[in-house]
Automatic annotation (TrEMBL):
<feature type="transmembrane region" description="Helical">
    <location>
        <begin position="105"/>
        <end position="126"/>
    </location>
</feature>
<feature type="transmembrane region" description="Helical">
    <location>
        <begin position="236"/>
        <end position="254"/>
    </location>
</feature>
<dbReference type="GO" id="GO:0005886">
    <property type="term" value="C:plasma membrane"/>
</dbReference>
<keyword id="KW-1133">Transmembrane helix</keyword>
<feature type="transmembrane region" description="Helical">
    <location>
        <begin position="40"/>
        <end position="57"/>
    </location>
</feature>
<keyword id="KW-0472">Membrane</keyword>
<dbReference type="Pfam" id="PF02361">
    <property type="entry name" value="CbiQ"/>
</dbReference>
<dbReference type="InterPro" id="IPR003339">
    <property type="entry name" value="ABC/ECF_trnsptr_transmembrane"/>
</dbReference>
<feature type="transmembrane region" description="Helical">
    <location>
        <begin position="147"/>
        <end position="168"/>
    </location>
</feature>
<protein>
    <submittedName>
        <fullName>Energy-coupling factor transporter transmembrane protein EcfT</fullName>
    </submittedName>
</protein>
<feature type="transmembrane region" description="Helical">
    <location>
        <begin position="64"/>
        <end position="85"/>
    </location>
</feature>
<keyword id="KW-0812">Transmembrane</keyword>
<dbReference type="InterPro" id="IPR051611">
    <property type="entry name" value="ECF_transporter_component"/>
</dbReference>
<keyword id="KW-1003">Cell membrane</keyword>
């Protein structure tokens, strides 16, 4: 079953925070992940994000795993490919022009932890914030409403298109279409009966969306909102803590820690 939102309803500390506070937290995690290059530091950041999701957000790791599973190939690809592009240091394996070194393995681990930390931090925001509140938070940061609406449509309709795709695939399988059998080029051709109705359905959906937006007066006059968001004392305290953590991280990096000798 396709969900239209990643939001998980819980009564946790993170769920009660203002979306702007969560964006500051996300930016701090991104900054720390991009700041360090040592796998030990990046691994610590990745584990810290998981602990925040489990204990501060009260979201089970099993629930998070359902969203992480599709991006695991990207994570493992980073882990496997990076060592081949960093052949410096002690060579562990060598065949023809292919070299795998200790520095390459460390680099692969570092990039894997970095990608994992950034992705899980993004999930932390999406799983604890309603799409409506996320858009309101962006508008409070003076992001133009047109861009916020584009983001809202993307968050809402990408899962919708995925659901339509699965429905079409099930309908075509019931008619005897075999998507997973035969040579690779035959499999590609078999997806034509999937793509064609998906494109037609997407065009119809776009037309209906355009009519709905137009009927609600998009682009005419100043916008008003049913709900307003306000920063509370805990929001200011949380933002201050994570800004301080980022500042300490920058100071540690300036001292020379968290890097690797060959970078």
């Amino acid at each position: 079953m396709i969900k239209y939102s990643m939001y998980v309803k819980e009564s946790s500390f993170f769920h009660t925070l203002d979306p702007r506070t969560k964006m500051i937290i996300l930016s701090s995690i991104f900054g720390l992940a991009l700041l360090y290059k040592d796998p030990l530091y990046l691994g610590t950041i990745a584990v810290s994000v998981l602990l925040m999701i489990r204990f501060l957000c009260k979201i089970k790791i099993r629930r998070l795993a359902t969203y992480i599973r599709p991006i695991l190939p990207l994570v493992f690809m980073s882990l496997l490919l990076w060592p081949f592009f960093q052949p410096t240091g002690n060579i562990i394996f060598e065949y023809w022009k292919i070299r795998v070194s200790e520095d390459g393995i460390r680099m692969g681990l570092a990039m894997t932890f970095r990608i994992f930390a950034i992705i899980t931090a993004t999930f932390l925001l999406l799983m604890t914030t309603l799409q409506r509140d996320l858009i309101l938070g962006l508008m409070k940061f003076k992001v133009p409403y047109e861009y916020c609406l584009t983001l809202a449509i993307s968050l809402r309709y990408v899962p919708t298109l995925a659901g339509i795709t699965y429905t079409i695939m099930d309908a075509q399988r019931s008619r005897g279409l075999e998507l997973d059998k035969g040579p690779i080029f035959k499999r590609i051709r078999n997806y034509i009966p999937i793509i064609t109705p998906l494109i037609i359905g997407s065009i119809r959906m776009a037309e209906e969306l355009a009519i709905a937006i137009e009927s609600r007066g998009f682009g005419y006059g100043e916008r008003t909102f049913l709900k307003e968001i306000f920063l509370k004392k805990r929001d200011y305290a949380t933002m201050l803590i994570f800004i301080l953590i980022l500042g300490i991280g920058v100071y540690i990096r300036v001292l020379g820690y968290g890097s690797m000798a060959f970078i």
